[in-house]
Amino acid sequence: MPTTASQGSAGRNRRSPRHLVAFTFIAPALIGITIFLIYPLIAAVYFSFTRFDMFNPPVWVGLDFWEYVLFDDPTVRIAAKNTLVFVLLMVPARTIGALLTAMLLNAMKRSRSIYRTLYYLPALAPPVTATIAFVLLLKPGTGPVNTLLATLGVEGPGWFNDPDWAKASLTLLALWSVGDLMIIFVAALLDVPQALYEAASLDGAGRWARFRYVTLPTISPVLLFATITGVIGTLNYFTQAAVAGSVASGQVTSGSGIAGTFGYPENSTLTYPMRLYSIGFGNNLFGAANVMAVILFVVSMTATIILLRRFKAFSGGDS
């Protein structure tokens, strides 16, 4: 009769091939994460303490670039403030807009698929093309939107050419292409059990009560997904703001030349990633650019953790 030690050894031998098979399947993902995420992150932290230009060996300078980014460059603070405003504007606007649109589509009895397709089409447009078209539509004086407002006796704003309206214009652009998020909410709403709505109705719950106590808790994981991806995406907001500033300024450029119109008008649309690009490729201060990249990573991870904890508290700690 085998002893306990021999039984344990046989069990480990049987498990070893399983572990090897499992590791073989996840090895490509682990290699990719190591090469494209972990190593670049460690390298960014190291280079943030050095002066280098990608041609010469890096020279250790300690906290010089950290002091420059955090205290000496006022443009970084402007870019960070603008990015925070974009997060506070765009993430709720896109999430609420997509949810309301999805609820409206699910409530429709006819032509639901047609309207769903029409709402989704703007999300398929390339960001550069969509931004150019949107800037031309909202162009002061000659744009179709202001022309229509003028016929109604309303003086249209300056939109992308006005510092007070530039952020709102970019938020409208983000709302226009909300179809990708809308489709996710449509699927989530269809998965809400009808029995819960029927039980709530029997208990005397009205529309708002059913939405608050049935719909929201059921689709809360999708709301969390939309919020986290929205925050991370907005913290990395670059293309639309850069193209809008270039087109609205009348100095349409490409490549490195586009940095000359970053933030137009009057730095009102300058985002954190745009300033990072300018410092790195415009000023050739890649050490400072790596400082900004590390800070952006830390802020993104912190925001994700906070949102996950909020979601856990909202859902009663069961997730």
Structural account:
With 319 residues, the chain is mostly helical. It contains 13 helices and 2 strands; from the N terminus they run αββαααααααααααα. It has helices at 4-47, 64-72, 74-107, 112-124, 127-137, 144-151, 166-176, 179-190, 194-202, 207-235, 239-248, 272-282, 286-314; strands at residues 50-51, 59-60. The protein has a two-stranded antiparallel sheet. Helix 2 (64-72) crosses helix 13, helix 3 packs across helix 8 (179-190) and helix 3 (74-107) packs antiparallel against helix 10. The longest helix has 44 residues, at 4-47. It is globular and about 70 Å long. The mean pLDDT is 89.
Question: Which SSEs are present, and which pair or pack?
Answer:
Elements: H1 4-47, E1 50-51, E2 59-60, H2 64-72, H3 74-107, H4 112-124, H5 127-137, H6 144-151, H7 166-176, H8 179-190, H9 194-202, H10 207-235, H11 239-248, H12 272-282, H13 286-314
Helix pairs in contact: 1-13, 2-13, 3-7, 3-8, 3-10, 3-12, 4-8, 5-11, 8-10, 10-13, 12-13
- Characterize the overall form: globular
Query: How many whole angstroms does the radius of gyration measure?
Result: 26 Å
Number of strands: 2
Give the N-terminus to C-terminus distance in angstroms: 46 Å
Summarize the biggest pleated sheet.
Answer: 2 strands, antiparallel
- Helix content estimate: over 70%
Order of helices and strands: HEEHHHHHHHHHHHH
Poorly predicted segments = none
By DSSP (H or I, 4+ residues per run), the number of helices equals 13
Mean pLDDT: 89
Order of strands across the widest beta sheet? 1-2
| Beta fraction | under 5%
Structural class by sheet pairing and helices: mainly alpha
